[in-house]
Amino acid sequence: MIEPKTTSQIAAPNEPESEPGIDRLRILLVDHNAFARSVGRRALHSAGIRSILEATSGREAIEFLGRSVLALDIVFCDLMMPDMDGIQIVRHMATLTAPPAIVFVSGVNEVLLSAAENTARARGLRVIGAIEKPLTHEAVRRALARLGEKPASDGSRSAIDVTPEDLEVALAGDQLRPDFQPKVSLADGSVVGFEALARWQHPNKGLISPGTFIPIAEQSGQISALTDQIMMLSLKQCAAWCDAGMRTKVSVNLSAHMLVDLNLPDRMAHEADRFRVDPSQVILEITESGLFRDDANALDILARLHMKGFPLSIDDFGTGYSSMEQLRRIPFAEMKIDRAFVCGAGKNAKSHAILESSAILGRSLQMTVVAEGIETQEDWNAVHGAGVDLAQGYFIARPMAAEQIPVWLAQWSSQHSAQPDAS
């Protein structure tokens, strides 16, 4: 039987203090090269890791992973090994009941590292990093920091159990509200609008993720009532901003399930008029992957919404299967490039190429081009260099309640009267 090679509980002198909990993590370091393992071990120790197991081959790693008593937290795995490569290890990890997170470590180019990440995620694994050799203290610390973050895929799932009846009660009461995420100009940093994002604050179950209640609303036929309520609250807030001297735009998501309701354009126009909001201030975002469920009716509805003055935005651009045909047939005024091609575009050549080509296409069609999912200065620099018009994402601000916006605006105006420093 192969025994794990472990450096658990080895204390190095003058080590930096680790973040709480890091010293309790159990790591499996997989690399056939003894020198690479030695470098990796030092980097892990310097980041505060105390329990490190080492596997000298892919097959040895698989045997360790099969031992439930080891309770591993993260696998740092070399991608290219002679007996079994990292992709094969991923295939095995995906069969485990509770697989650890994985970090790929390799000297191969970033395209292959990215392909390995995508493969692991497609198999349901938690990928918290892809690091080019050699493994360094800073690279390890960045990966460990991501371990504590909520996985992006969790946005579509929730442990909270809710029913259509719960949603009906929420719609009848005051449990649903929009939060607002700013959209800013990349040219001068000015705030040009906000996207309204539905939030459900349940009195007993707490904050419920849109990834939980939106599918319920669509499946139960309540999506129209939900969208109408978010639209009404967003129009009311937009009117309040106008009364306070802040004329701005608000974007509202429109489910593809609603593109069968031929009365929708008239109802939207009536609501805008009731709140004294110009339709040009209300951008309707339609997810590209949701078009079309009923081709003729959808074209009818979208054309009439455009005629009534509502700008149309194609959301999550690049994730559907008929992008060019959609742009040809529908009078979109705005293109929102999906976050998958924005976040990390500064490092991923393929993502950057898609980002840049999408921006060129949008500008050539006289559309406002928005990049969503900007999380870092590097992302900002990438979209700015690609010629994108507007930016949205955590780097600018998280979604917030309307009453928080004046304080945020004051801070943003004082700190970012021009675009953020791109140095």
Q: CATH homologous superfamily of the largest domain?
A: EAL domain
- What characterizes the major β-sheet? 8 strands, mixed, barrel
Specify the CATH class of the largest domain: Alpha Beta
How would you classify the helix and strand content by structural class? alpha/beta
Task: State which percent range the strand residues make up.
Answer: 15-25%
Question: What is the CATH architecture descriptor of the largest domain?
Answer: Alpha-Beta Barrel
Low-confidence stretches: 1-20, 152-158, 418-423
Question: What is the H/E string?
Answer: EEHEHEHEHEHHEEEHHEHEHEHEHEHEH
Write down the overall geometry. Answer: elongated
Number of strands: 15
Helix coverage percent: 25-40%
**CATH topology name of the largest domain:** TIM Barrel
Helix count, per DSSP?
14
Tally of domains: 2
- Backbone CA Rg: 25 Å
Q: Biggest sheet, strands in spatial order?
A: 7-8-10-11-12-13-14-15
Average residue pLDDT: 85
First-to-last CA distance: 54 Å
Textual characterization of the structure:
The chain has helices at 34-46, 58-65, 86-93, 110-122, 137-147, 164-172, 210-220, 223-243, 264-274, 295-307, 323-329, 349-364, 377-386, 405-415; strands at 5-6, 26-30, 51-55, 74-78, 101-106, 127-132, 176-185, 191-202, 206-208, 249-254, 282-287, 312-317, 334-337, 368-372, 390-392. 38% of the residues lie in helices and 20% in strands. The longest helix is centred in the middle third of the chain and has 21 residues, at 223-243. The chain is an alpha/beta fold. The protein folds into two domains: 5-149, Response regulator (Rossmann fold, 3-Layer(aba) Sandwich), CATH 3.40.50; 155-415, Alpha-Beta Barrel (TIM Barrel), CATH 3.20.20.450. The radius of gyration is 25 Å and the shape is elongated. It is built from 14 helices and 15 strands.
